[in-house]
Design a protein that fits this description.
The protein is of the alpha/beta class and 470 residues long. It has 15 helices and 14 strands. The strands form 5 sheets. It has a 4-stranded parallel beta sheet with strand order 4-3-9-10, with helices on both faces. It starts with a strand and ends with a strand. The chain binds adenosine monophosphate and zinc ion.
């Protein structure tokens, strides 16, 4: 299996640190709003990478954080007059709903920055003791980049160039730096901000330290794959490498994977240009499976342009697969148990070749676009070689094969049964009754079932409201 490694800028053969296991860390979103469709790209892409490893029989330990302490969260909390925890908890829940809609599996662990402060204090202390970090007069702790000789190895920047580049940028409040390329590990609190006690000052962590600490705690000093969007290569991932390798004395991650950006109508997504969509907004117009299918229709390292035309094309492509599988489901009910015909045996051989084609595409740095082509060819083969006279064995084989490959892509190949408003109302009533009887386990189970069907509940003062997110 070949993976393009940002570190070497080459496709490399994947060799796990431990046989049969993959330790993977994916930088997650900062939770101060609904996630946008740009954030959805790494979620979908790396969930598909995980799914392929699992399909190949690997045991994947997948860790993805939520950054729940940050200037933007604090800003939003001040705006609404609530604690920043109220904001972060709210948008973590909303993000999880969007992930479910996009069929992104929950991570093995979703750590929160605010719950990992002790580990961060510990790592910062280690870095100070070994001379890799220092405290400035105002209590800020900085990482000393000149102490880490390999600084710049991921982004392929040279420390001298970096230092002269940074010299131009003066950041207020960071006057205590020894060198402009040094970065913050811990900073003093400001009025009204959440803070923690530390050896240096009451304050909060810089952004980069959380990922080094969480990766160490949940995966160990060395991991197989570290991933995120390409904007994270510098400075975030470069700084993570410096922190982790300086503190642990070992190579941090063997492979670094980065997805290219998602643009809208060929422009960078931005709120001010008005070309900014949240996943929730898209879910009001499309089944989020269409969004997932769209994201996988291009290679993850190619920039992808979001447009109404491309979404329509993805909708039609997905529809072709769903219709093909629907036909097989119908035939399965009618098909007779009889031995395979010669033509069917030939069909099974052809399908076998298409599975190999799918795997070869995925093993060439996760070329999902070619993987999808192989699935289309399977559907075409199925449409042209099955009818009322087909044997049950053949029909079931094709159906299960298409479903298995779709599952690697995170696409649910069976069309969802339409759920009626009345059924939803009845389930909400049953949940209300369970809550009244303090049977919260049952109430949660009903809520979960509704979520699986694409129905989100909201408990309001006026009662329970529901919405289809598809
Ligand atoms: P953030 O919340 O900004 O830290 O972003 C969370 C993840 O989304 C990171 O891996 C980013 O690189 C990624 N990301 C943000 N915007 C885009 C975009 N327009 N296209 C692709 N990935 C993005
Ligand atoms: Zn990170």
């Amino acid at each position: 299996m070949k993976i393009f490694n940002t570190l070497s800028r080459m496709k490399e053969e994947f060799v796990p640190l431990e046989e049969g296991k993959v330790k993977m860390y994916v930088c997650g979103p900062t939770v101060y709003n609904f996630i946008h469709i740009g954030n959805a790209r790494p979620m979908i892409v790396f969930d598909t990478v995980r799914r392929y490893f699992e399909y190949k029989g690997y045991d994947v330990n997948y860790v993805s954080n939520f950054t729940d302490v940050d200037d933007k969260i604090i800003g939003k909390a001040i705006e609404e007059g609530v604690d920043s925890e109220v904001i972060s908890r709210r948008y973590i829940e909303e993000c999880k709903k969007d992930m479910a809609g996009m069929n992104v599996k929950p991570a093995t662990t979703h750590p929160l920055a605010t719950q990992e402060i002790d580990g961060m204090l510990e790592m910062i202390k280690t870095l100070i003791t070994s001379g890799h970090a220092y405290k400035a007069e105002d209590g800020t702790v900085y990482f000393r980049t000149s102490s880490f000789k390999e600084y710049g190895k991921l982004s392929h920047k040279n420390l001298d160039e970096l230092q002269s580049g940074f010299r131009e940028i003066k950041v207020t409040g960071e006057e205590g730096k020894e060198d402009p390329s040094d970065f913050v590990l811990w900073k003093p609190k400001k009025e009204g901000e959440p803070y923690w006690e530390s050896l240096w000052c009451q304050g909060r962590p810089g952004w980069h330290i959380e990922c080094s600490v969480m990766a160490k705690k949940y995966l160990g000093d060395q991991i197989d794959i570290h991933a995120g969007g390409e904007d994270l290569i510098f400075p975030h991932h470069e700084n993570e490498i410096a922190q982790s390798e300086a503190a642990n004395g070992k190579e941090f991650s063997k492979y670094w994977m980065h997805n290219a950006f998602l643009n809208i109508d060929n422009k960078k997504m931005s709120k001010s240009l008005g070309n900014f969509f949240t996943v929730r907004e898209i879910s009001e117009k499309y089944d989020l499976q269409v969004l997932r299918f769209f994201m996988l229709s291009a290679h993850y390292r190619s920039p992808l342009n979001f447009s109404a035309e491309l979404m329509e094309a993805s909708k039609n492509g997905l529809e072709r697969i769903l219709t093909g599988v629907e036909k097989l489901c119908d035939l399965e009910k009618k098909a007779q148990k009889k031995s395979l015909s010669q033509k069917e045996e030939e069909g099974i051989r052809e399908a076998g070749d298409l599975i190999k084609k799918f795997e070869a595409a995925m093993e060439d740095d996760f070329n999902t676009a070619d993987g999808i082509s192989a699935v289309f060819e399977l559907v075409k083969l199925s449409n042209s070689t099955t009818d009322e006279n087909s044997s049950k064995e053949y029909v079931v084989y094709l159906k299960e094969t298409i479903e298995k490959l779709c599952d690697v892509l995170g696409i649910i190949a069976e069309r969802k049964a339409e759920i009626l408003d009345q059924e939803i109302e009845d389930m909400i009533k049953a949940r209300g009754q369970a809550r009244k009887e303090k049977n919260f386990a049952l109430a949660d189970e009903i809520r979960g079932k509704l979520l699986d069907m694409g129905i989100v509940l909201e408990d309001t003062r006026e009662g329970v409201k529901w919405k289809r997110v598809q």
